Amino acid sequence: MTLLQVRDLQTHFATRSGALKAVDGVSFDIAAGEIVGLVGESGSGKSVTGFSILGLIDPPGRIIGGSVKLEGRELVGLPNAELRGVRGRQISMVFQDPSATLNPVLTIGRQMQLALEAHEKTSEAAMRARAVEVLERVGIPDAARRLDAHPHQFSGGMRQRVAIAIALLNSPALIICDEPTTALDVSIQAQILTEMKALARDLGTAMIWISHDLATVSSVASRLLVMYAGRIIEEGPVRDVLRAPRHPYTAGLIASLPAHAVPGRDLVQIPGSTPSLFDLPPGCAFQPRCTYAQAGCGVMPNLLREENRAVRCHFPLNGSGS
Ligand SMILES: Nc1ncnc2c1ncn2[C@@H]1O[C@H](COP(=O)(O)OP(=O)(O)OP(=O)(O)O)[C@@H](O)[C@H]1O
Ligand SMILES: [Mg+2]
What is the best residue among 10, 12, 13, 279 to mutate for testing ligand 1's pocket, by most ligand atoms within 8 Å of CB? Predict the structure, then answer.
């Protein structure tokens, strides 16, 4: 069943140099319970996509076109009061920095109570019990006692667990995770990844997992969306995309994974640098960095769908993975 349907989403920022097309015609579906990874270099539009879904785009940014449907209900253009009813209840978000979620002056228990009350008023005891339940679910030891603690009394990893617990409080159908483990130690990162995957499975929660790190995304998601310069350029099941990328950019991302390092040699890097969104070439945005570019690449390729894969390239790679 389709939970979220995004169609031709366009989110632009008004700047002195003109419209910055941060998200420029993005379409994808998320099935109920599915974990989808959204990957791409810094500035490719991953976070703006996440914020757009939640209606969290403020001026100078604006959703100028497209549609975001949650279980068939259009979210683009919904009044803020109605969007607040969606946020935190049907869709919640976990950010790289837990302080984006946590209020430093309130106890964890109080914050969780507020997050619950925002959507449904129940008894104090029921709210406390629910808070303890989700804290335990994310691996906070001695949860009942920790309700009285303030955010600064937790380690970085534990603070992020609390933020995840708050995201889970109202049993949302979808959690958008925007680099939630990037700032953490590698070992804690791995633990939280494994736990989030189990959470999604046990609770049937769908997740959009955003990261610039293909290795991280691939370890948690079952399907990949690859973004480049505000557009999706490749989509498919993680295993298929890793084994046989069809877009040269995806192939470059895979070749630069540390797992593919040859001892004593530098990691392979995609040549060139992330393009300025103000200065994109006509046609395929990746063309200036692409080893396979030809004259025809000056025309914008469409995202071509074939079974469960999609690629935006005139000359897609054909499966050998190189
Ligand atoms: N408030 C804003 N005002 C102007 N431009 C913005 C704003 N927020 C984002 N942008 C621009 O939109 C583009 C996409 O940004 P976004 O934050 O979505 O990238 P990202 O893929 O999440 O990158 P990262 O991996 O660094 O988090 C960037 O060019 C960014 O500079
Ligand atoms: Mg981001």
Answer: 13
- pTM for the full predicted model: 0.95
Burial of 237 (0-12, 13-18, 19+ CB in 10 A): middle
Show the tokens assigned to 117: 């009350």
Q: Are 155 and 163 in contact (CB under 8 A)?
A: no
Quote the distance between the C-alpha of residue 1 and its chain's center: 20
Domain assignment present for residue 166? The answer is no
Q: Residue 254 falls within a domain, yes or no?
A: no
Say how many domains are in the chain: 1
The tokens describing 137, both together, are 């679910």
What percent of the chain is predicted at pLDDT more than 70?
99
d(CA 42, CA 178): 12
In DSSP terms, which residues pair with 61 in a beta bridge? 13
Atom of ligand 1 nearest to the CA of 60: 3
The answer to the question of residue 109 being in a domain is no
pLDDT in tens, 11-55: 999 999 999 999 999 999 999 999 999 999 999 999 999 999 999
The boundaries of the domain holding residue 61 are 2-101+171-221
Tens digit of each residue's pLDDT (9 = 90 or more) over 135-158? 999 999 999 999 999 999 999 999
Q: 259: which residues sit within 8 A by CB, 6+ positions away?
A: 215
Ion ligand 2 neighbours (CB, 5 A) are: 47
The CATH number given to whatever domain includes residue 8 is 3.40.50.300
Residues with CB under 6 A from ligand 1: 13, 20, 22, 40, 42-48, 60-61, 212, 277
Cβ atoms of residues 277 and 48 within 8 Å: no
